Amino acid sequence: MFKRKHKRSTHIVLEDIVIQVTRKKVKNINLRVYPSKKEVRISAPHYLSEQVIRNFAISKLGWIRNKFSTYKAPVHPNDPEFITGETHFYKGKALELRISTRDASSKIILHEKQGILEMIARPGSSKAKRADILTEWYRARLKEQIPLLIEKWEPVMGVTVQEFGVKKMKTRWGSCNTKAKRIWLNLELVKKSAECLEYVVVHEMTHLLERLHNDHFYQLMSHFLPNWEETEKELQGKID
Ligand SMILES: [Zn+2]
Fold it and tell me: Which pLDDT value is given to residue 73?
């Protein structure tokens, strides 16, 4: 024997909206809107006529349209597609990505005044490939900027940084190996303002004078960068 489900589906079409109607063992007519999927579903008791359900749907049409029009698709800042029109950040500024497909070696051209980050990529390049092109450009920019900051601060602070590196870090903006006098900076800093980058570099360099986050450390920080607390708020994250 088949298990009989008292359920069958039909559709009501109202202008450009298609509503799926399912008959169920329910007492009341029920309407649900799924704006993300552009779907509308009605569940209704078996005894209600098609016309009653249709009239009900018509009475809700304005409400349905409102649900659809006010729905905002979620943005996925952590899951970009690397396509034209997308927003990407550099030095604290939002830039519009523009992909120019060309059978040439890939590169990024920053059109600062126009607020455009142009990516030259080969036709048909994958999302992963485009992500790599941007990551490498970001990494190169940070590797240009960081040594300038280290050179600026070394004589002021009286310390020497032996080595620095840039890497993707999940939980920290930077870290410092005080023994090796090596500092690591999070690649994401490239998207933040110049003040943020400088703050993290100075923070990590301060660890060469004071390993711990104690009063002495914060006294030093306030001496070097009196506004460091403001900048830290902008970063909203952990600094080691
Ligand atoms: Zn620290």
Answer: 58
